[in-house]
Design goal:
Elements: E1 2-6, H1 10-22, E2 27-32, E3 43-47, H2 48-57, H3 59-66, E4 70-72, E5 75-79, E6 82-86, E7 91-95, H4 96-110, E8 113-116, H5 123-129, E9 132-135, H6 142-146, H7 148-151, E10 153-167, E11 174-181, E12 184-192, E13 198-205, H8 206-213, H9 228-237, H10 239-242, E14 247-248, E15 255-262, E16 266-267, E17 270-272, H11 287-304, H12 308-338, H13 348-356, H14 364-370, H15 372-386, E18 398-400, E19 403-405, E20 409-411, H16 426-437, E21 442-449, H17 466-482, E22 486-492, H18 503-506, E23 519-520, E24 534-535, H19 538-557, E25 562-567, H20 572-577, H21 592-595, H22 597-609, E26 616-621, H23 632-644, E27 649-653, H24 671-685, E28 688-692, H25 698-706, E29 712-715, H26 717-721, H27 725-732
Helix pairs in contact: 1-4, 1-11, 2-3, 2-11, 3-4, 11-12, 14-15, 16-17, 19-22, 23-24
């Protein structure tokens, strides 16, 4: 087979060495337009797992790399005159120039034809001449551009600027320095890569960059030239960090990170590798790691499969899940740094934990495994801020308004579709009672509707008749009489999403018969299958507002401890907030201020009807997941408006507003929205913020609470899986949480097994570090 490799970086060279080892008869040519000793950048970072793969694949390369490594276990966070150190992280780095030298030498030993100072043929020319073209031509890949119709790339340029430098200051750990400068917040990412030098990256938000460097930064530089004026200013700004040491440049210039994604990595006999196919932000040290893992997997798949089509399909099937996971973590990390300014009010201990867990790959439990002493210090600090005993963060008490909660766990509102004429049944008594017995601090009802025509389905509960009120009183009496939990009611109106089937008969699908007329701010159906709602008149808005107030009075009589106003998920109040569903031209439509008018009127009416000593929260959709809809900036202003009207908390969900939405699902995928609102609005107004959305482990709850990204965590499906989830989480963590006396015999966990999902605890140490082809790699073998 004749193989053309376009690009002589780590990805291209490493692939060439592995493919040549497996098939010495292959003719492999690598094109690299730079000289052999030209390289840009400084240190490259590897995890222990990636190094294990390299060792299996080619012990010669691994041995040469190992002799060059600078290793560290600690991460130091320098913030506001303090240093917090977390150990047990186990990474290694080396000079990028030496890595390329090792790979070049190995190519020469194996007979790979590497052509330096030579422009590669075009992708079209190479694909016609060679059996396989491996495009390892970087983030600005000409190959990806040439076949963009097939690869369908998307490039997202981010909002921070950074510059990559080196220093003769040899760091003894990975270093995060947060600098508070006259221009704004800046951050340094630093790590050693040899016994004489370290990588030194300065990153800052584009607004801060404009103030600090906008007037002096070079607008055009020749290839290989560095921005010396900026670097001179950096030396002054970072003088305290450098302590007399030098920074040096190597093609160092300001850039904004571009996240590259492609719909596919293959066009006929052309395949993308490394940064040409995908990028992941440098703050999780993943670029060279991903590229070399790609190379390993591609070489292995070509060896294992009987034909090229199968090999390229196997390569992408194997690598895409790994890359997607890494990109998700990298996205969380880069967004954290973009929003760094919203965390600088935090205590240095909390800030250190926050920065360490920013990507959600490192967690509370994970840090406890790596560095128990550090974890204990954090627990002690958090307890001291609450004047409480030391315990896992999720079990620290919390006060929302004037209501005391025994812990931070909330059973999220979940529609059960099991009421009869709006009356909750024995099902609700058992369902909600079991969740309260299970240890959660706050149990929420499903959305309880304020009128018969405000129901979603015929099975939805209500609070508009005396019989309904009495039935709910039976539930609250049980919770109060048998558990320490509090119980809240969520009030709402279905709006344009009403008159539909029970969920299990067809979610959001219209009833085959017995439909009732639905209403909305504008006459826009939820989907082509749904009814077109009637646009509400101002008089009808006043009637609905009073229905909410009357239901609030009934909820108080029914004994609920907390009331939540449902302004999310595309129901009536949510439909007023979103410009996608509110096209009114009167005072209730148009600007965000006008779209907020009716939800705020309802809030004020409910707040006046609801007892002053009982808290009231609002659930919002922080994004519509659709262009032109609500985004996080709007959500901040919506949360601010409700806070100013007296809300005690904001429950931050997302989506379900339009049927065309395109959510970005993933673990804890909605929590960044809660994080933003908590650290802007929650802090400013002293109100609680509740995070919700694919939170399924006690580790995630502890991590979110301790990092200050939320005050409470609401879990839904998790409680359907295990009604005693909170009790079990306490047992797993060794926390002596009191169990109901009737359950006391079960409080001592039987031998064997665990209750917090399928992953053994020790595996958390490698959470997210998904293996690749290296696990099966044996050069010269069939498998």
């Amino acid at each position: 087979m004749r193989i053309a490799v376009l690009g002589g970086g780590p990805a291209g060279l490493y692939f060439a060495t592995l493919a040549k080892q497996l098939h010495p008869e292959h003719e492999i040519t690598v094109w690299e337009r730079n000289a052999p000793d030209d390289t840009f950048g400084f240190g490259v970072v590897f995890s222990d797992e990636t190094l294990g793969g390299i060792e299996h694949a080619d012990p010669v390369i691994h041995a040469a790399m190992r002799r060059e490594f600078a290793r560290w276990d600690d991460i130091d966070v320098h913030f506001r005159g303090t240093v917090h150190t977390s150990g047990g992280h186990g990474f290694a780095a080396m000079s990028r120039k030496r890595l390329l030298g090792i790979l070049q030498e190995r190519c020469a030993e194996l007979g790979v034809d590497v052509r330096f100072r030579t422009e590669a043929p075009s992708a079209a020319e190479a694909s016609a001449e060679y059996d396989l073209v491996v495009a390892a031509d970087g983030v600005n890949s000409p190959t990806r551009a040439a076949f963009a119709g097939s690869f369908r790339p998307s490039l997202q340029t981010r909002r921070c600027k950074y510059i990559w430098l080196g220093t003769d200051l040899v760091f003894d750990a990975f270093k995060f320095y947060v600098l508070e400068t006259p221009h704004g917040i800046m951050q340094i990412h630093g790590y050693p890569y040899s016994d004489t030098a370290s990588t030194f990256i300065l990153e800052l938000h584009e607004d801060v960059w404009q103030r600090a460097f906008g007037e002096i930064a070079a607008t055009s530089l020749a290839p290989g030239e560095s921005d010396e004026k900026s670097i001179e200013v950096i030396r002054e700004l970072c003088a305290d960090v450098l302590g007399g040491h030098q920074v040096f440049a190597n093609n160092s210039k300001w850039t904004a990170f571009a996240t590259v994604r492609c719909a596919t990595w293959r066009h006929e006999n052309v395949v993308l590798l490394g940064d040409a196919a995908h990028t992941a932000h440098f703050s999780i040290g993943s670029g060279t790691k991903l590229a070399m893992e790609d190379a390993l997997a591609l070489a292995a798949c070509l060896h294992e499969q009987s034909d090229m089509d199968s090999a390229l399909a196997a390569y992408e099937a194997e690598r895409r899940p790994v890359v997607t996971s890494t990109q998700r973590a990298a996205q969380a990390s880069l967004e954290w740094f973009e929003n760094l300014g919203q965390y600088t009010h935090q205590d240095p201990a909390q800030f250190a934990f926050n920065i360490l867990t920013r990507s959600r790959r490192v967690t509370y439990d994970n840090l406890r495994l790596r560095d128990p002493e550090f974890a204990d210090e954090l627990d002690t600090w958090f307890a001291s801020t609450l004047d409480s005993e030391v315990r896992p963060p999720m079990f620290q008490p919390f006060r929302i308004g004037k209501l005391d909660l025994p812990n931070r766990v909330v059973v999220s509102p979940m529609d059960m579709y099991s009421s009869e004429d709006g009356v909750p049944t024995d099902f609700h008594l058992v369902h909600l009672g079991s969740k309260a017995l299970g240890g959660a601090g706050l149990v929420m009802t499903e959305m309880v509707c304020v009128s018969e025509t405000g129901r979603i389905t015929p099975g939805c509960g209500g609070l508009y008749t005396e019989k309904q009120e009495q039935a709910w009183r039976r539930v609250t009496d049980f919770v109060h009489g048998h558990t320490p939990a509090r119980i809240g009611v969520q009030l709402g109106h279905s709006g344009r999403k009403g008159s539909t089937k029970l969920m299990w008969d067809g979610i959001d699908q219209p009833l085959p018969e017995g439909n009732w007329e639905i209403c909305a701010p504008s006459a826009i159906p939820y989907s082509e299958a749904n009814q077109t709602p009637r646009e509400l008149t101002v008089t009808e808005l006043q009637e609905i507002r009073e229905q909410f107030a009357e239901s609030a009075r009934a909820a108080a009589r029914a004994g609920f401890d907390l009331l939540e106003l449902h302004c999310a998920h595309g129901y009536l109040l949510s439909s007023f907030l979103s410009p996608l569903t509110n096209r009114r031209t009167d005072e209730y439509g148009g600007s965000l201020e006008n779209r907020l008018r009716f939800p705020l009127e309802v809030f004020d009416a409910v707040r006046a009807a609801w007892p002053a000593e009982r808290p009231m929260t609002v659930r919002i959709s922080a994004t519509d997941w659709y262009d032109g809809g609500i985004d996080v900036d709007d959500a901040v202003e919506i949360a601010r408006a409700f806070a100013e009207h007296g809300a005690d908390g904001i429950d931050v969900s997302t989506g379900q507003v339009v049927s065309e939405e395109k959510p970005e699902y993933g673990r804890s995928y909605q929590t960044p929205y809660a994080d933003r609102i908590r650290n802007e609005i929650g802090r400013e107004y002293g109100i609680a913020v509740i995070a919700v959305g694919a939170i399924s482990s006690y580790d995630d709850v502890n991590s979110l609470i301790l990092a200050g990204r939320a005050d409470l965590c609401a879990l839904g499906r998790t409680h359907l899986y295990d009604p005693q989830w909170t009790l079990h989480a306490a047992a797993e963590q060794g926390y002596p949480m009191p169990w109901p006396k009737q359950f006391a015999a079960g409080s001592r966990k039987p031998q064997g097994g665990r209750t917090d999902g399928p992953k053994p605890r020790l595996e958390l140490l490698r959470s997210g570090e998904t293996g690749t082809a290296h696990a099966r790699w044996r050069p010269g073998s069939d498998r």
